[in-house]
Protein: Glcg protein
Organism: Actibacterium mucosum KCTC 23349
Amino acid sequence: MTKISLDTARQIIAATRAAGRDLNLNPLSVVVLDTGGHVLAFEREDGASPGRFGIAQGKAYGAIMLGMPGSAQMARAEQQAYFMAAVNGVYGGQVVPVPGGILVCDDAGAVLGAVGVTGDTSDNDLKAGEAGITAAGLVAKG
Amino acid sequence: MTKISLDTARQIIAATRAAGRDLNLNPLSVVVLDTGGHVLAFEREDGASPGRFGIAQGKAYGAIMLGMPGSAQMARAEQQAYFMAAVNGVYGGQVVPVPGGILVCDDAGAVLGAVGVTGDTSDNDLKAGEAGITAAGLVAKG
Amino acid sequence: MTKISLDTARQIIAATRAAGRDLNLNPLSVVVLDTGGHVLAFEREDGASPGRFGIAQGKAYGAIMLGMPGSAQMARAEQQAYFMAAVNGVYGGQVVPVPGGILVCDDAGAVLGAVGVTGDTSDNDLKAGEAGITAAGLVAKG
Amino acid sequence: MTKISLDTARQIIAATRAAGRDLNLNPLSVVVLDTGGHVLAFEREDGASPGRFGIAQGKAYGAIMLGMPGSAQMARAEQQAYFMAAVNGVYGGQVVPVPGGILVCDDAGAVLGAVGVTGDTSDNDLKAGEAGITAAGLVAKG
């Protein structure tokens, strides 16, 4: 596989949402981006606040553009907040540097896309997204 | 019904995509927005170009914000191009004033959200979206 | 009077809305701006589409910034569309150059602020706004 | 009730302003947004500085988009400043994460809109807004 098909994207979203229910999380919003950072599929669960697309997309977009998952971006932001602020200037304010932005890789480590999850704590968002990616037979780098 | 649930949004997208196959259209991208113009769900079919989210969203967003479907926006743009250009300034460049931006209404005519379809001709995008909304038991105003 | 008080702004809005009812217009949205183009008061009638604040504000903002009501802006846009497009670049896309952006003046012709009305045809928006300004004992330049 | 009517929005603003006078606060500016974050009504009291619309709107807008009142946003900003900065990038710089951005809920806890108050200290802004929402028979989540 060199790219994520829509069927795979929908499978990742369904499995992420199922993990959210299993973990008893708040309503989740889940986006899947391609290797260019462009949206393939998105779903926002009933009860989530209206602005969740932007947060989900921002988590995944930063992961793609920097080749670095949300947890690594957060570490960098905690060491050097002005760097991540500058990165956001470069990318038009679309980067949300916290866990829940997850690279989707193949077995060889090649990046196929990214998933962004939001709605619960950042750590729980990450858990649900990793479960979704794994369920689709792919490798999560969160 | 006073709002579109995620299940209904997914049903609209599935039926719009099915209509696209029946009509033998190019790969479609379909977004469903809520009454505030915020994304509920989106899918981009395999083979569509990467920028399709923005076009789908722009068709549906203008319909919500102005209370006017894409075909009516196009008529206005053809009469008064500078007016629709100005509207786009007001809404941050997010309005795509052509058919395929469709209001989703209940039986009484209340707006519940909007659908944006892109990928084939604007008129075919509209046909597929109308079929999708109708299949979900709702009223399309395209 | 050298500026519009909040009481006067509310009076203008109430009288504009009353004129809308008398003229049997669609639900109106009405904004009053001060001499700096900043919002004093706004009301959006039930049934109006959600994006009406931006349109009302854009009509009034252009009137203030250029010292020229919406009808004069429209005449300029029809002669020289690229000029009004350039003006919109300068003012951050906040100018909507059609009737319904109305200067509010005192008896000596000094500008005290502007009113923006949207919801019906531009010409009807203008009629309602002029009635509202006149009812408040001020001079409308539409 | 599933949405805030203009009459209810005006009632909230009137009662918030009355609370400001009772508490002897500085001139207040008060906005009411719908469930999509779009402006229903706004008033700026005489003597307030001209930029108050943007602050009031930013307090209420963040509450709607994140489903989180200003006090909770402030707590998050104090723990993780770069996160709220990133959120502001996502929402176009329209989020003001301090008390005075208040969710308006029905008895069952469903969000009907948000109120933004500015002019005095953030804590006093919050008190006045809560009083206004309660006076209109709705539930404030501040």
Q: What stands out?
A: Chain C has five helices and five strands. The beta strands of chain C are 29-33, 39-44, 101-105, 111-118, 139-141. The CA atoms of residues 7 and 108 of chain C lie 21 Å apart. The helical segments of chain C are 6-22, 52-66, 70-79, 81-90, 122-135.
